[in-house]
Specification:
The chain is an alpha/beta fold and 238 residues long. It has a single domain, classed as Glucose Oxidase, domain 1. The strands form 3 sheets. A 9-stranded mixed sheet has the order 1-13-11-5-7-9-10-4-12, covered by helices on one side. Helix 4 links the parallel strand 9 and strand 10. 33% of the residues are buried.
Length: 238
């Protein structure tokens, strides 16, 4: 049986770390010429949202002044085979080192999406949502594997005690590798290789985008789907 896992957090307006607000209004407020019969419900809403609320993918523009915006990120970097690497034993401000990720990530193949599992997603929105970090050499190893994208189920990958600013982000972004933060439910995956799909909002000028990614397993059952998204597929409008 194919197992499909939602990897995003459900969000409540007004209760997130970053702004997420909704304003409801009758359709006539947006389209005055449209007349809704008395007593009928027909609305539209304004959404005011930070680009980094909930599960989101970051583009190079987030940390590089002249980096590509989210609408220009190749969507093929967010679709494909993914290796899940487990670091759920790591605590707050503990480093994930190059030697550790080389050892635990032996199943990472060139061109993979890599998903780091810390197990912290269950604490999302609480004081216990306090992450470990990747050291710079660990991120460099991932870049050397030519990964398509890096994702993690906590709030980031940086060592906040380090002297440099957003060093890991810049290493990824200089190689046009997007970063996904605040992933959910990696602990619900049964295998360490899955098929991953995430789609962004194609809005020009954004540094990041909310996403609703999914993982599909077992990988052997979706090999045909993986082939559809291979380099041999014909992509239009991306």
């Amino acid at each position: 049986m194919i197992h499909i896992v939602n990897l995003s957090h459900r969000l409540q307006p007004g209760k997130q770390r970053f702004k997420l607000e909704i304003k409801r209004a009758p359709v006539e407020e947006y389209v005055p010429e449209y007349k809704v019969p008395d007593g009928e419900w027909y609305i539209m809403e304004d959404l005011e949202v930070c680009t980094h609320v909930g599960t989101h993918v970051e583009s190079p523009y987030h940390a590089l002044r002249h980096g590509m915006h989210i609408a220009d990120v190749d969507i093929r970097r967010l679709i494909g085979e993914a290796a899940v690497v487990d670091f759920s034993d790591k605590g707050y401000q503990e480093a994930i080192t190059r030697s550790e990720i080389e050892k635990r990530g032996r199943h990472v193949s060139n061109g993979d999406i890599v998903l780091i599992r810390t197990g912290l997603s269950r604490y999302y929105g609480t004081q216990r949502y306090r992450r470990p970090y990747l050291d710079t050499e660990a991120v460099q190893w991932l870049v050397e594997q030519e990964i398509k994208c890096l994702g993690i189920d906590c709030s980031g990958i940086e060592n906040r005690a380090a002297a440099g600013h957003e060093v890991n982000h810049k290493t990824l972004f200089r190689n046009e590798t997007p970063l996904i933060e605040d992933i959910n439910n990696l602990d619900k995956l049964k295998e360490n290789r899955v098929f991953f799909i995430a789609l962004t909002l194609p809005i020009e000028g954004l540094d990041a985008s909310l996403i609703r990614p999914i993982a599909i397993e077992p990988l052997i059952a979706v090999k045909q789907l993986a082939g559809v998204f291979s380099e041999l597929a014909e992509w239009e409008g991306f």
